[in-house]
């Protein structure tokens, strides 16, 4: 496992709306702190940072463009020189030009963090893996919410998170912890 000097950090949907209590109980209460640790490393080492912002098509969404939930949380505001990708579906590659930007920059390794594990994180990581990118998902820098399955059975956010990571591991991505990434970067 080696973190490349041009590995892109893709931060998904760290917008004000994701903090809405109506989304329900979540897991990984330290996820934002882990994201900020990685963001600090990327900024200090000059690696590319890509902020993904969801612009929902649904007025009921916490990410509906005409209200404050669509805005980035202050701690995740993009800095000058960092890229912004705006999406309307969970997959950050779908109709956004993300793949072309990465290819043009010669980036073939991605570290994906953010929300929600079972939704935009999983969707984006699946596509990244299918496109041949060396894709890492930092499991402790992602979180999700309690969710019922198709049959109406309730599952905890921890179980939803674990199943989503299980779907990704090996076939689409390598699931890692932030500490592993930080250690790899230190050893370069």
Automatic annotation (TrEMBL):
Q: Which GO terms describe its molecular function?
A: hydrolase activity
Q: Does the keyword Hydrolase apply?
A: yes
A Pfam family it matches: Isochorismatase
Cross-referenced InterPro entries: Isochorismatase-like_dom, Isochorismatase-like_hydrls, Isochorismatase-like_sf
| Highest taxon in the source lineage | Bacteria
Sorted alphabetically, the keyword list is:
Hydrolase
UniProt keyword Lipid metabolism present: no
Give every Isochorismatase-like domain span. 7-168
Q: What PANTHER family does this protein's entry cite?
A: ISOCHORISMATASE HYDROLASE, PEROXYUREIDOACRYLATE/UREIDOACRYLATE AMIDOHYDROLASE-RELATED
Protein name as catalogued:
Cysteine hydrolase
């Amino acid at each position: 496992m080696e973190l490349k000097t041009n590995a892109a950090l893709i931060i998904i949907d760290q917008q004000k709306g994701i903090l809405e209590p109506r989304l329900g109980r979540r897991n990984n209460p330290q996820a934002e702190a882990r994201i900020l640790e990685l963001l600090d490393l990327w900024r200090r080492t000059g690696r590319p940072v890509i902020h993904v912002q969801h612009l929902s098509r649904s007025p009921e969404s916490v990410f509906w463009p005409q209200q404050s939930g669509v805005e980035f949380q202050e701690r995740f505001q993009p800095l000058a020189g960092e890229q912004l990708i705006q999406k309307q579906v969970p997959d950050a590659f779908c109709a956004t030009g993300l793949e072309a930007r990465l290819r043009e920059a010669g980036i073939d390794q991605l570290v994906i963090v953010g929300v929600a594990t079972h939704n935009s994180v999983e969707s984006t990581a699946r596509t990244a893996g299918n496109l041949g990118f060396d894709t890492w998902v930092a499991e402790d820098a992602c979180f999700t919410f309690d969710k019922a399955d198709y049959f109406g059975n309730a599952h905890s956010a921890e179980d939803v998170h674990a199943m989503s990571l299980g779907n990704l591991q090996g076939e689409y991505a390598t699931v890692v912890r932030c500490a592993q990434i930080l250690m790899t970067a230190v050893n370069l």
